[in-house]
Write a structure and sequence with these properties.
Number of strands: 16
Number of domains: 2
Number of helices: 12
Shape: globular
Order of helices and strands: EHHEEEHEEHEHEEHHEHHEEEHEHEEH
Helix content: 25-40%
Radius of gyration: 21 Å
Oligomer: single chain
Length: 375
């Protein structure tokens, strides 16, 4: 199909999203309001009959001194990735449109799954001294068509992109995530799929009297205090409270169920908290936070179990625990997080990763030097 790409309104974009079972939360119109340092632009793909057949949220980031922008479509756009005419019919009109908006490079994250590993396969790989990365382990499934999409991208001049820079230009969504399938399963079946430690911890939290409630915007401050403690403990740079307030206001204005906040407490003290995002049948565990106090009552497991049960009750098909490390080395500090997520009995999922296309090679090269100088 040969499409025409043009600017669409928020209403047109949101109507397109609502008509689909799953679209990344990074591709809804309101996400552009969250990323205040970027200029959001809604893109629409129109077929020969004039119908809207694809949509995407492009985030434009002007680069100081050159008057041009980097265009980024995180986990998007939402187009027919399986079309053999992908490059000419869908992507070329997009890059032409973005060039007209002043973009010198386009980066995107095709929402195309390449491989899957069952929880059991991941556990075996962690124990295998010959497996240093997840890719070293035989997958449980290879998704038909993913390799063809990657080849079409390469032939059209796209290339896999590495990590971004820092200082506000840090880009990159996780290529590997961990997902828990929910469709057609009961809470008992899901709990039965947890490993023994997870089941024990859920029961321990219940017996200890851990209470999990859904909070509101007033509770973001409590969440953020725990989040700052988590950042200090785990060694990452935290986002400011204003970022989460902006998320809350923008996403819930678009859809009251788009973002939720959960808090787990014991004897009146909040011990863990997390944000959850929902688009259609897909639910994402977004940000988590916890204190080191009273870990023996297992508030994090209780929190996750409540969020999973609520997602199931609301008709979700997938509960997405987001990014995991692809390295299986014992020294990797993220290996513990992988083990925690594997305990849910879900599956590791590899996407095609992020790809970029320089529209102006000289400016693209200058931008790479700029990023390198800021590191």
């Amino acid at each position: 199909m040969r499409c025409e790409v043009r600017t669409i309104t928020r209403e047109e974009h949101l109507d397109f999203v609502r008509a689909r079972p799953s679209v990344s939360h990074l591709q809804v119109p309101a996400w552009g309001d969250v990323k205040e340092d970027w200029r959001p632009h809604g893109l629409g793909w129109f077929g020969p009959d004039g119908r809207l057949v694809g949509a995407g949220l492009a985030l434009l980031r002007p680069v100081p001194g050159i008057g041009r922008s980097l265009a980024y479509l995180p986990e998007g756009p939402v187009v027919d990735w399986g079309d053999p005419g992908l490059a000419e019919g869908w992507l070329r009109p997009m890059t032409a449109h973005l060039r007209g908006l002043g973009a010198f490079t386009v980066r995107m994250g095709p929402p195309v799954v390449a491989r899957r590993w069952s929880a059991e396969r991941v556990k075996e790989a962690i124990q295998d001294p010959a497996a240093h990365r997840l890719a070293d382990a035989e997958p449980s499934a290879r998704e038909e068509g993913a390799a063809a999409v990657a080849e079409r991208l390469r032939q059209a001049g796209w290339r896999r992109s590495g990590g971004g820079g820092d200082g506000g230009f840090a880009l990159g969504q996780p290529r590997y995530v961990f997902q828990l399938p929910l469709r057609g399963r009961s809470p008992e079946q899901i709990l039965g799929g947890f490993n023994q430690q997870w089941r024990r911890n859920v029961k321990k939290a219940e017996k200890a009297g851990v209470k999990v409630v859904e909070g509101d915007g007033e509770d973001l401050g409590t969440f953020h205090e725990l989040y700052l403690e988590t950042a200090g403990r785990d060694g990452f740079t935290p986002r400011p409270l204003g970022y989460f307030r902006r998320m809350w206001e923008a996403l819930r204005a678009e859809d009251p169920g788009r973002m939720r906040l959960y808090l787990a407490s014991h004897d009146g003290e909040t011990l863990a908290a997390a944000t959850v995002l929902t688009v259609g049948e897909h639910v994402w565990y977004s940000y988590g936070a916890s204190t080191s106090r009273r870990r023996e009552v297992q508030p994090s497991n209780a929190l996750q179990w409540r969020m999973i049960c609520d997602a199931l009750e609301r008709g979700a098909a997938v509960y997405d625990l987001r990014g995991i490390t692809d390295t299986l080395e014992n020294g990797d500090p993220l290996l513990g997080l992988l083990r925690f997520k594997v305990g849910t009995g879900g599956e590791a999922v590899e996407y095609l990763g992020e790809w970029e296309l320089p529209l102006n090679k000289a400016l693209h090269k200058a931008f790479e030097f700029y990023l390198a100088a800021r590191r």
